[in-house]
Amino acid sequence: MQGTTNARVAQAKACFSALGRITTRSQFGGYGLLVDGIMFAVVAEGEMYLRATSSLESVFRARGMANMVYSKRGTPIVMRYYYVDEALWQQRQELFALAWQAMREARKEVQVKKQSHERLKDLPNIDAALERLLWRSGICGVYELRLQGAKETFLRLQREQRRLGLKVLLSLAGALAGYHHAALPTELRSELLTWFNAVIIPPRQDSLCP
């Protein structure tokens, strides 16, 4: 099995050489494939699996790719890595495009995690009161806020405190985009207003003033 794993690693390095210099490290009983320290795939038991983020899982599933299942102390764990079958290996351009997406999204995820040490109130529009409400809703850091996005975060906040209005939604979007809520780009503000009017019925007045 080690021989087939090594052969698959060599095949992957040749196929994805345009991504950059590919290095390996031990991972899940096989090898992780990395470019610039970012892991985008795993080779285990002679097979390769591409790394997925939340935005890529639907793409991989739509193509019929199955999750990697890793056994840890006899317990099967479903991983966010997706199986590359022989048919996909034969479609080199498509495979490279998927690997490039996996690499790009993995890099984004790592960058966001590096920012997770920031306090929420260090972002624009987030004061101590809104930060505490975010904590109560289960969003304790910048990383979680970015993963959820402004709309989903707003809905979670409403479960904690119903009397929240448009200003809080705009403040969350501004915090994520780096704007004061009053200076949001017109297109983004319009999109949020349309969503708010369609989903939040009836509109409510803010009880927080970020």
UniProtKB/TrEMBL annotation:
The gene is tfoX. This is TfoX N-terminal domain protein. Residues 117-195 form the TfoX C-terminal domain. It comes from Serratia odorifera DSM 4582. InterPro entries: TfoX-like, TfoX-like_gammaprotbact, TfoX_C, TfoX_N. Signal peptide: none annotated. GO terms for biological process: establishment of competence for transformation. Residues 16-106 form the TfoX N-terminal domain.
